[in-house]
Amino acid sequence: MSFEPRSIINGKLLREFMGKNVSVMVKIEGDYTGQIIKAKTTDQVPVRISLSEPIGGNPTDWVEVIGVVSGADMLRAKEVIMFEESNQEFDSESHNMLVNIMNNTRDFYATG
Amino acid sequence: MNDTFGDQFNTTASAGQAQPEQKSEGIVPVFVQQVMCAEEGNFQMWGMTFNMVTIVGIVRHMETSSTKITYTLEDHTGQIEAHYWLEEDNPSKSPDVMVNCYARIYGSLRQHSGKKTVMIFRMFSLSGANELTTHLLEVYTARYKAERLSQKRPSDFMPMHQEHTDNSNTAGLTPHQSAVLQAIRNYMDTESGISMTQLHKSLSYIPGNELREIIEFLVTEGIIYTSIDAEHFLST
């Protein structure tokens, strides 16, 4: 698989990343068996995710969608990454804060 | 770590790691792209050198040979090859990770025919999504903290009480001593100065006997003096 860098974003940043490769943490809401699934981002934005193939198995609550932004509330998923079940609930607020930090820092790759 | 593995991997170890004067400072959490941009040798950032890195990424590929397992690890910034060398007496012992799932590695950087790789010391599957968030935050913390530390000049490490005053009289005073002196100075425009009772009140966090000792010290040093009576003070 050829690699393309992606940005880790949240719901409110979708507009700014139209057509770009992104990674978004979402909580799947309701039915996950279809070609299009509904989910919510860490900043509570409802999104629709179109899948190239249905999610195999029983997805964890929160999943990482790697794909391309296809609309202000649409993601075209290349793949859905699931995480190991953990007793710890996913800290979506911290993740959302992280996304804000990641998209507001400068010169990250500078090394002095 | 390098010493332990040095002999065995001399062929892949880069020249930089052999230099003893490079003081390395432990493990740094990084993104793949940071490693790719790095100079040969141990990972360096803002004047700090680290002999190990930790990367969290999706395992994209695994290939087992008789001596090692080669993993391709991918985070949002790039892909990197990492080698896990199998133990001679226990070749079936290998990390419990799956393709297309997240894993964390700890290892040291190697350069092999111009390509950066990681020699894995430890590898685990991720305990959950929170570990990913934590890693990403730690990468940012490490990066920006290193920059801040590099900008600290020795003068920045002066004790706090010296930063707040411009009077040479206060140099060498403890925080409590300078707090007392400051309180006395605040009453300089009154004729009799501050009374012991007022000092007690405004500096209630300093115990009474310590306050008396400080006063005595400041008087002995000639920084303050008693005014209308032994219970009122002015500063020189």
TrEMBL record, chain A:
<protein>
    <recommendedName>
        <fullName>Replication protein A 14 kDa subunit</fullName>
    </recommendedName>
</protein>
<dbReference type="GO" id="GO:0000724">
    <property type="term" value="P:double-strand break repair via homologous recombination"/>
</dbReference>
<dbReference type="InterPro" id="IPR012340">
    <property type="entry name" value="NA-bd_OB-fold"/>
</dbReference>
<dbReference type="GO" id="GO:0006289">
    <property type="term" value="P:nucleotide-excision repair"/>
</dbReference>
<keyword id="KW-0539">Nucleus</keyword>
<dbReference type="GO" id="GO:0006298">
    <property type="term" value="P:mismatch repair"/>
</dbReference>
<comment type="similarity">
    <text>Belongs to the replication factor A protein 3 family.</text>
</comment>
<dbReference type="GO" id="GO:0035861">
    <property type="term" value="C:site of double-strand break"/>
</dbReference>
<dbReference type="GO" id="GO:0006260">
    <property type="term" value="P:DNA replication"/>
</dbReference>
<dbReference type="GO" id="GO:0003684">
    <property type="term" value="F:damaged DNA binding"/>
</dbReference>
<dbReference type="Pfam" id="PF08661">
    <property type="entry name" value="Rep_fac-A_3"/>
</dbReference>
<dbReference type="GO" id="GO:0006284">
    <property type="term" value="P:base-excision repair"/>
</dbReference>
<dbReference type="InterPro" id="IPR013970">
    <property type="entry name" value="Rfa2"/>
</dbReference>
<dbReference type="GO" id="GO:0003697">
    <property type="term" value="F:single-stranded DNA binding"/>
</dbReference>
<dbReference type="GO" id="GO:0005662">
    <property type="term" value="C:DNA replication factor A complex"/>
</dbReference>
From TrEMBL, chain B:
<dbReference type="Pfam" id="PF08784">
    <property type="entry name" value="RPA_C"/>
</dbReference>
<keyword id="KW-0238">DNA-binding</keyword>
<keyword id="KW-0539">Nucleus</keyword>
<dbReference type="InterPro" id="IPR014892">
    <property type="entry name" value="RPA_C"/>
</dbReference>
<dbReference type="GO" id="GO:0003697">
    <property type="term" value="F:single-stranded DNA binding"/>
</dbReference>
<dbReference type="GO" id="GO:0005662">
    <property type="term" value="C:DNA replication factor A complex"/>
</dbReference>
<dbReference type="GO" id="GO:0006260">
    <property type="term" value="P:DNA replication"/>
</dbReference>
<feature type="region of interest" description="Disordered">
    <location>
        <begin position="1"/>
        <end position="21"/>
    </location>
</feature>
<feature type="domain" description="Replication protein A C-terminal">
    <location>
        <begin position="161"/>
        <end position="230"/>
    </location>
</feature>
<dbReference type="InterPro" id="IPR012340">
    <property type="entry name" value="NA-bd_OB-fold"/>
</dbReference>
<dbReference type="InterPro" id="IPR014646">
    <property type="entry name" value="Rfa2/RPA32"/>
</dbReference>
<comment type="similarity">
    <text>Belongs to the replication factor A protein 2 family.</text>
</comment>
<dbReference type="GO" id="GO:0000781">
    <property type="term" value="C:chromosome, telomeric region"/>
</dbReference>
<protein>
    <recommendedName>
        <fullName>Replication protein A 32 kDa subunit</fullName>
    </recommendedName>
</protein>
<dbReference type="Pfam" id="PF01336">
    <property type="entry name" value="tRNA_anti-codon"/>
</dbReference>
<dbReference type="GO" id="GO:0000724">
    <property type="term" value="P:double-strand break repair via homologous recombination"/>
</dbReference>
<dbReference type="GO" id="GO:0035861">
    <property type="term" value="C:site of double-strand break"/>
</dbReference>
<dbReference type="GO" id="GO:0006289">
    <property type="term" value="P:nucleotide-excision repair"/>
</dbReference>
<dbReference type="InterPro" id="IPR036390">
    <property type="entry name" value="WH_DNA-bd_sf"/>
</dbReference>
<dbReference type="InterPro" id="IPR040260">
    <property type="entry name" value="RFA2-like"/>
</dbReference>
<keyword id="KW-0235">DNA replication</keyword>
<dbReference type="InterPro" id="IPR036388">
    <property type="entry name" value="WH-like_DNA-bd_sf"/>
</dbReference>
